[in-house]
Amino acid sequence: MARELENREAELSRRDTFYKEQQGRIQEKNAELYKMTSQQFHEAASKAESTINTPQNGACVLWPTSPDPPLLP
């Protein structure tokens, strides 16, 4: 009975080590994906900002995309 308990504890220890290693790999991959996504977002935001037309004085002009809705009586 004691030997069986030792075997179970050894197996649990091996599994614990395995899962901790897997968790570390997943966290590294997640950090890489976060960095890449963040970089892509900032590049897209910079590109979008560069396409906005601003007058000579630096003021931003917003152009309506659709006419105003009709007023209700």
TrEMBL record:
Keywords: Coiled coil, Disulfide bond, Lipoprotein, Membrane, Mitochondrion, Mitochondrion inner membrane, Myristate
Subcellular location: Mitochondrion inner membrane
Highest taxon in the source lineage: Eukaryota
Membrane topology: Lipid-anchor
Keyword Membrane: yes
InterPro entries, per database record: MIC19/MIC25 (IPR007964), MIC25 (IPR042860)
Pfam families recorded: MIC19_MIC25
Keyword Disulfide bond: yes
Function: Component of the MICOS complex, a large protein complex of the mitochondrial inner membrane that plays crucial roles in the maintenance of crista junctions, inner membrane architecture, and formation of contact sites to the outer membrane.
PANTHER family: MICOS COMPLEX SUBUNIT MIC25
Family to which the UniProt record says this protein belongs: Belongs to the MICOS complex subunit Mic19 family. Metazoan Mic25 subfamily.
Protein name: MICOS complex subunit Mic25
Native species: Apodemus speciosus (Large Japanese field mouse)
